[in-house]
Amino acid sequence: MMRGIKVIEELLSKRIKPCLDQSGFIIMFSLIKVIAVSGTHGKTTTSSLITSYLKNLAIKSKLSNRRNANWF
């Protein structure tokens, strides 16, 4: 597994209030739950998992957009 993105590691080390944006709220709420579970020593592993999850979402989103573009 690759090392996580430094920005995500920093987010995991801080307490973050949820955003008002619907998608941002879900992400921030999940980060707060992860902080409570992982504590100090799990930030790199947790960051790696979140990074790979976000990359998978981006890939799926691109594939979905291509399928929708081919539909017309």
Structural descriptors:
single chain; 72 residues; mainly alpha; 74% helix
Largest sheet: none
Name the helix and strand elements from N-terminus to C-terminus, one letter apiece.
HHH
DSSP, total strands: 0
Distance between the termini: 39 Å
What is the typical, i.e. mean, pLDDT? Answer: 62
List the total number of helices. 3
Q: How big is the Rg?
A: 15 Å
Output the structural class: mainly alpha
Shape: elongated
Query: Into which percentage range does the β-strand content fall?
Result: under 5%
- Helix percent reads over 70%
Which regions are unreliable across 5 or more consecutive residues at pLDDT < 50? none
What does this entry look like structurally?
By secondary structure, the protein is mostly helical. It has a domain at 22-71. Helix content is 74%, strand content 0%.
Secondary structure: elements and pairs:
Layout: H1 6-12, H2 22-38, H3 43-71
Briefly say what this structure is.
It is built from 3 helices and no strands. With 72 residues, it is mainly α.
